[in-house]
Structure formats: C-alpha cells, structure tokens
Write the structure tokens for this entry.
Amino acid sequence: LPADRRALRIGRIVEVEAYVGERDRASHARFGRTARNAVMYGPPGIAYVYLVYGMYDCLNVVTEQEGRPAAVLVRAVEPLEGLAAMRAARWALLARRRRRPPAADPGARPPDVPGDDRLASGPGLVAAAFDITRADTGRDLCDPTSSLRIEPRPGTEPIPALVATPRIGVAYAGEPWTSVPWRFAIAGHRSVSGPARLR
DNA sequence: TGAATGATGCACT
DNA sequence: GTGCATCATTCAC
C-alpha cells in the first residue's frame, strides 16, 4: 500500500443490508454453496468480500451459525479518522477508472472527490475508502487485534434511530425478496448512500 | 435534479 | 454467453 494510505482509518457503520439463507433470491447463497460464497456457510463474524460489476469490491459480515448462509453488506460508513488516507484511496479508484496515471501531488484533492462525510457512502466506496479487497475474505472481523475489524458501539453513544427500506439493486430477485425491508440506515444521516432526498 | 449509459471482471446457468 | 448486492459521467431540463 502506498505510504499515504497506511494510516489508521476509522468509521462508523451507518447503513447495512441483510441477505439471509438460500431461500433469499437476492443472496449470493441462492444457488447453494459455491466456491465464491463458501465463507457465508462458515462461522459468523468473518469477512466476505466480492466483486460487483467487474469494478468494485463489497464488504459483508457473515452473521449466522455455521451451515446457515447469511451476511450483512456494509453499504455506508461515516468517516471518523484517517480521512486523508480515505481521500487518497478514493482518488486512486477514480484514476483507475479513468485509466490515467496517478496524480502527482498526493496531498491535494481532485475536484470531483466529494465532501469528507460522503467518502464511504456506498458499498463499493466503503471497500475503496478502507482498501478492502477480496483478499480480505475469511478474516475475523471480531478479532480486536486484527488490522481490519468491527468494534462495538461505544457505550457512551446512544442507539441511533433507524429506518428500514427495501434493499438496493435487487430487482432481479423477484417478490417478496425485492421488497422485504432488510436495508437499515441511521435516519437522516449525511453519510448514508443515495441522493439527498432519500436520506 | 434526475435519467441514461458505459466501464469492467468474473460467477454462474 | 448472460447478467450482476455499483459508480461516475453525460446530457436533458
């Protein structure tokens, strides 16, 4: 990893989606156990990272007992620390998409990188901001010594108000799976994905 | 402000 | 070969 992306990065998860069981026709487990989704059948707390649309990695957390394939997709994170590293990673993502050489000055912000609170406002952007890739699949996100981990909400923070909506981008699954309200977000939070009017 | 579209790699039928 | 748990850009308004 380049030096400007080695800093500690911390964020608050503000939006997730649940994918539960082989019956869920929107889930990667809908065809049963395969090479790609095998980790979903394992113990909970483990990372499952997959590639979507040939371009973006997406981070999931396995959530159920061994043998029951389920995971939560981390759709958006509020950046808290290590913002410069997140910006650098975002810039690298943009440069890759445009097939342009990396920018000369790593400290500057390109004009099309959005405000800091939206650096990880989408599942592909979460992985990009934290430099998470498919190579992270299988890592234990609950290990407090891991360099990639999820920690409990500090007890000093109140439980935020949530909204539940249908999941994004699963029209192919058919009913009831396209409509079940299994997307959860902090109500009105500025770092939630999507256009402002829907936050 | 919103709808349409291209980029891009690979898992899967 | 088909289609995808997405994003940025372009173009209309």
In short: The radius of gyration of chain A is 17 Å.
